[in-house]
Amino acid sequence: TLKTIGDYAFGSVPYIKNVNLVEGLERIGDCAFVLDEELTSVSLPSSLKWIGSSVFLGCNKLLYTTENGVDYLGNSTNKYLYAAKKSDDNIAPKSLTINEATTIIGGSILEKESTVENVIIPANVVSIGIQAFASTSITSITIPSKVEEIGAYAFSGCAKLTTCTIEGSSLKTIQHEAFSGAKALTSISLPESVTYVGPSAFTEAYESSSLYYNEDGKGGRYLGNEKNPYHVLVGVTDSAIKTLAINEKTKVIAGEALRAVSEVKNLTIPASVASIGDNAFFQMVSLESIVIPENVTLMGEGLFGSCSELKTIDLKNAPTTIGTGFAVDCPKLESFKIPSSVQKIKTLIINRCTSLRTLVIPASVVQIASSAINGTNVTIDGKDYGLTIYLEANTKGALFEKGWSSNATWVYGNEWHYENGVPTLNK
Questions:
Q1: In this structure, what are the phi and psi dihedrals at residue 388, rounded to the nearest 5 degrees?
Q2: d(CA 110, CA 125)
């Protein structure tokens, strides 16, 4: 069953007039049908949980159902499933009434509508789109109990927002900068269900704001709930701290939580942590080593960018993907083993890591992006040093993109063996 339609999947296709999406589909990526100028009708399945930004931008012939100043798309059973946009004739609204049958609120539905002071999100909504209510004048918002995802910038710039109530325990994802610039927000309780918090989802913890953070006296700042006030590590009390002990009840490290924490040399991630957001350790320029514990099931992108003193990365968990920008500008990185659970390697996982001499690609890896491993050569005293990549498989995978290992030497599995645990070329 098709579950996801990717970004730009059917963009600028001139002959599409009708789209009937089947049940089972859960996500539609950004700009999926952008500039399909002949598109007139769309049927969306009730299984949908997320619709990205600008999905139907430029589809000027597309017919919507309009009610109370909102344009909807849906299906024969529920024509109000997707609150796509504010109607063109709904000028300077003070409030927005969304149909009770709506399950998805579209991106930018009220972006920069500064006259809007009141929004009620219906009980059946499961996701709130990118920039949905950004820079409006709302003072309070209630996130209903069925909402699973809050999109990037959804409430960004809502300078008058003082209260956000999250009901129930369905919310899983808070994308980057969802509440950035909501400087009047005084408190927010995050349920135990939250498994991912993106970079700068809230006003950065070490900047002045009205938001109350939980602290345990060990350097971290947290958001959570009454049962576990330390559920999400969002920042630190001072970016110049030299020691940091992450609370043992923490389950989520937010994106950029420890960005530019420049004096910490040693960091222990507790076994309780299950999720680490994008750029979580970016520019930790004194960090020397890191161990990702076995319970971590989600690792974001750009984790160790510009960690200039980092020498070893030890992944005790079992990731299936190594994300983009995993270790970029880590010139002292000497030891990194890709776990045998990994199936996909994205671009720039190793870049300008000039001390890394060997890297083993497990046989489990079936896909590697272009420029995944590059910039690893260095010249010292007139002598060139570089990276040797040891493939466990005897053939290169069909989904290894061109240029995946630029400036590195690689050998097949039948050309090398382990000798005392060290990859060694056959004689």
A1: -110, 125
A2: 16
Strand partners, 141: 164
What per-residue confidence (pLDDT) applies to 209? 64
Tokens of 235: 């920042």
Same CATH fold, 73-185 and 1-63? Answer: yes
pTM: 0.94
Average pLDDT per 10 consecutive residues for the chain, totaling 427 residues: 96 96 98 98 98 96 95 98 92 90 97 93 98 96 98 95 96 96 92 97 65 94 97 94 98 97 97 98 98 98 98 98 98 96 97 94 96 84 82 91 88 95 93
Q: How many residues in the chain?
A: 427
CATH of domain 1-63: 3.80.10.10
Predicted pLDDT at 382: 72
Partners of residue 422 on adjacent β-strands: 419
Residue with tokens 């937010």: 254
Please give the distance of CA 140 from its chain centroid, rounded to a whole number: 26
SS (H, E, C) 18-86: EEECCCCCCEECCCCCCCCCCCCEEECCCCCCEECCCCCCCCCCCCCEEECCEEEEECCCCCCCEEEEE
Q: What is the pLDDT of residue 379?
A: 67
Contact 115, 95 (CB under 8 A): no
H/E stretch holding 380 reads strand 378-380
Which pLDDT score, from 0 to 100, does residue 237 have? 92
Whole-number Å distance between alpha carbons of 305 and 283: 6
What residue segments make up the domains of the chain, in order of their start? 1-63, 73-185
- Biggest alpha carbon distance in the chain? 78
CA atoms within 13 A on the CB side of 255: 23
Using CA atoms, how far apart are residues 45 and 67, in angstroms rounded to an integer?
A: 20
- 73-185, CATH topology level: 3.80.10
**Alpha-carbon distances of 148 from 172, 195, 198, 258, 340, rounded to whole Å:** 5, 10, 14, 25, 31
Q: What is the pLDDT of residue 205?
A: 45
Three-point CA angle 259, 261, 267, nearest 5°: 100
